[in-house]
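Every protein is a chain of amino acids, and every chain bends into a shape of its own. Below is the pair of lines this work produces for a single protein:
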Amino acid sequence: MAGDVSPLAGKTIDPNRLVNVPRLVTAYFAGKPDPSIPGERVAFGTSGHRGSAFNNAFNEDHIVAVSQAVCDYRRGAGITGPLFIGIDTHALAEPALASALEVFAANGVEVMIDAHGGYTPTPVISRAILTYNRGRSDGLADGVVVTPSHNPPEDGGFKYNPPNGGPADTDITSVVEKAANALLADGLKGVKRIPYARALKAANVHRRDYVTPYVEDLANVVDMEAIRTSGVKIGIDPLGGAAVHYWQPIIERYKIDATIVSDAVDPTFRFMTADWDGKIRMDCSSPYAMARLIGMRGDFDVAFANDTDADRHGIVTRSSGLMNPNHYLAVAISYLFAHRPEWGANAAIGKTAVSSAMIDRVAAKIGRKVVETPVGFKWFVDGLIGGSFGFGGEESAGASFLRRDGTVWTTDKDGLILGLLAAEITAVMKADPGEIYQRLTAELGAPFYARIDAPANAAQKALFKTLTADKLGIKELAGEPVTATLTKAPGNNQSIGGVKVTTANGWFAARPSGTEDVYKIYAESFVSADHLRQIQDEAQAALSAMFAAG
């Protein structure tokens, strides 16, 4: 984290500081982005186009341009099946859905919207795409989720999932982004569009029950019967997000002892406690944003929350409170590969380059291969589809895993099944995930992990693209010889967008932010907190020297 923790962190926000929703929606429709200004262009990051209408970064023009670009991409790629579309609970989600439908309907796309005008989590869309496409070689489906993930209430987001069900890769997003910006620059002349009322009545716009098929299929990925018969007491906080209307049907169908601590939906997210910097974020890995559920830890055997599009998970245990995402990934991997006998003997573990080395130690213990990739869940898609990955997870509290029979469940992150898995672990092991993690550290060592942000201007961030081991020049790190200096992920030889330096008992990775004038340093030590700080200090010193040398 960058900067000092705000005195507002962990507290509810003064009503005067909440987002003005009518003003935000007005800005969405009234604001006209200038494509000659970089910050007002369509820009696809790792999870689609994001921004706020207040600064002309997420307006109606963006959405109609992106939607037309998606239609054109589908046509060029021969994608003729239905497009599954879902939204989260951010204020800009419903306006953006309306804009997108006007374009999709006019272009003749067979669109599947929620039957009841409700919210649809990212993993539900991913599963719907994969389920529809199973056994098909043509007429394939794809999808869109209107969400900025856990970002603040004033933000909007729009992401595209191709027929593989996962996040679109850069080959696709670069095409869509370029086409959308060309449409913006040309005054949207190439956009086909019909009025919203006509779009809703169009023959190619269909209502779909997203809830029931997902809920009924859950028993094929999580042992719901073990949870039910154990009587494990569960707390669930949707954080006002898209999973809010999924949990009660899950509870009722599987007769589990679970309590939804709040089912409130409010686009200001006034019920949230502020994150570390005093802003509202539905970040279920943040102890500040999760203050409400953490305060209830004694009421449940295990509790969990999801971010706004429910692709992330936050696990709260009675034994240790909110778990560090890396810690829970290690526990989940250790448990799953011991309790999924139908998974392939060669099914590997997908992890990102900035995830904890504890995962590598767990993998060595259970005899499974680790495939280390750059940041981004897209790198796990092919492995999950083919079953060569049993599990794929990121340090930012996003993961998915195979069905119990070893076939694909989702190729995007699924925060719902990771929460339910915590309940399964507690039920089967008679210990919560926090206690299981303590057992792992007693055997394999306890890591000290942290991420910090450091200032870097555009020129300095650009230097990361030319980094080599020789340029960095680190031979020793925190008293240990360097064993590897990597600019490409060892699992797939793809650029990590920065550098990773490893030793026998520690490592750091550094990569520039795509949205802020900072670079991120991830670091870990299996020695001590002091050793971790030494790694961080030496990493910053080496990178500062690189900046100075230009």
Q: What stands out?
A: The chain is about 35% helix and 20% strand. The two ends are 26 Å apart (CA to CA). The first strand starts at residue 44 and ends at 45.
